[in-house]
Design brief:
The protein is mainly alpha-helical. The chain has six helices and no strands. The N and C termini lie far apart (40 Å).
Length: 117
């Protein structure tokens, strides 16, 4: 199955705004594996930046203990490993508390470096 979000991480020309756009267009694929079983979050762990991992997590990418362990063992990217541990902790807390009463809106798209100038 084709997953455009996974393909983004192997593209030569990437920008966070492009990822934001893909998530908006293909939100139903945020946890869907592409051919070979690679999910967007796994692709981001391998090829992405901490900000890209954060963006996926903020938009519903699911994390589990096996993924956290894999990141720590093989990729050795401390900032991404910390994000993964934190996301897993929040998921466990949320599961133990139950559904939140307030709606959780997605964060605004990241500002491009050009617009900040």
């Amino acid at each position: 199955m084709r997953n455009e979000i996974v393909e983004y991480f192997f593209s030569k020309e990437r920008c966070e705004l492009g990822l934001w756009t893909l998530i908006g267009r293909h939100a139903d694929k945020i946890n869907a594996p592409a051919e070979g079983g690679l999910t967007p979050l796994k692709a981001a762990i391998q090829q992405g930046t901490p900000d890209e991992v954060r963006l996926l997590l903020a938009n519903g990418a699911m994390v589990d203990q096996a993924l956290v362990d894999h990141e720590a063992r093989y990729h050795k990217r401390p900032e991404i490993a910390a994000l993964m541990r934190e996301a897993l902790m929040h998921a466990r807390i949320s599961a133990s508390i139950g559904p939140a009463s307030s709606s959780s809106a997605a964060p605004p798209p990241p500002r491009s470096k050009r617009s900040a100038l």
